[in-house]
Specification:
four-stranded antiparallel sheet
């Protein structure tokens, strides 16, 4: 599933095609993805000018001069195509601009979503209301994380995946950051020391920044809007590397936590 770096890569890739552009046509090719497209999507967006593209957690936001904000989630297999042409089998939404750009939302599994919010989406979109801080923001620091984890006996990995603790983190990048900070993924969150939290926060920021610079990670379906693969996978420290050697010399193992694969090194990530 596309995580924060993949969504950030997508938003940055769409910006040159959409920011400052008038939307001349908005067409849906089916009634729904994971849920129905907004019934008035075409009516409210056609003729509007895109003023800004942004991201919150794993959602992309397309804002217009009408104070309407189209919020998209890529689900498991979604991406935007910017190469134009005609709609393909798995293209479900088309945005056309006055400059002649044709942008398709492509989603074979249809687990993505598109919503439309009038007014400030950060306060009015229900999915945003309970989100924790952005991990790349100044608001996310060791003190903030300590407050969120205080008294919590759930594994630290599970807590980092909790979007109310910190927004946008997913399985790949949590595994990577925990390894970088030398924290066992099954350690109860409240038992992680202040010193370890002080190393975990910059590890999260460093992993996300490097992943964005590499265009994200491609597992099966993700491509940037330009059709490029995400190349951060070649730099994974532990994720997907069961049986390989950690940089500390230990052997990376895989366990299952809450039905999801966790990769870590028992030598340097002691419980």
């Amino acid at each position: 599933m596309p995580e924060l770096p993949e969504v950030e890569t997508t938003v940055r890739g769409l910006a040159p095609f959409l920011e400052g552009q008038r939307l001349t046509s908005v067409i849906t090719f089916r009634p729904d993805l994971r849920r129905a497209f907004p019934a008035d999507l075409a009516q409210r967006l056609t003729g509007a000018t895109v003023t800004r593209l942004s991201r919150r957690a794993k959602y992309g936001i397309v804002s217009t001069d009408r104070d309407d904000h189209m919020i998209f989630h890529l689900g498991m297999s979604g991406r935007w195509r910017t190469e134009g042409g005609e709609a393909g089998k798995h293209d479900h939404l088309l945005l056309e601009t006055g400059a002649g750009h044709r942008l398709f939302l492509h989603d074979p599994r249809r687990f993505g979503s598109v919503d439309l919010v009038a007014g400030d989406p950060l306060t009015l979109f229900p999915a945003f209301v309970t989100l924790g801080p952005e991990p790349l923001s100044d608001a996310f620091d060791a003190a903030c994380l300590a407050r969120a984890l205080a008294g919590r006996r759930a594994p630290v990995k599970a807590m980092l995946l909790d979007q109310t603790v910190v927004a946008g983190l997913g399985n790949i990048y949590v595994c990577e950051a925990l390894n970088m900070a030398r924290i066992h993924p099954a350690k109860p969150a409240a038992d992680v020391s202040k010193a370890k939290l002080a190393s975990l926060v910059p590890a999260i920021k460093d992993v996300l920044t490097a992943a964005i610079a590499a265009g994200g990670s491609t597992l099966r379906d993700f491509l940037s809007p330009e059709g490029d693969l995400g190349y951060f996978a070649k730099d994974w420290r532990v994720y997907g590397r069961e049986g390989e050697t950690c940089e500390c010399g230990g052997t990376i193992v895989r366990i299952v936590q809450a039905g999801r694969s966790t990769f870590y090194c028992p030598k340097c990530q002691r419980l």
